[in-house]
Amino acid sequence: MSTEPELRTDPALLPVLDELRRREPIFHRPEFGSTRADHRAMTVEDFWEVGASGRRYSRDYVLDVLDERQRNPQPDPWETGEFHCRQLADAVYLLTYTLRQGERVTRRATIWRRDPEGWKIVFHQGTVVADG
Question: Which parts of the sequence belong to the DUF4440 domain (predicted)?
Answer without folding.
Answer: 41-121
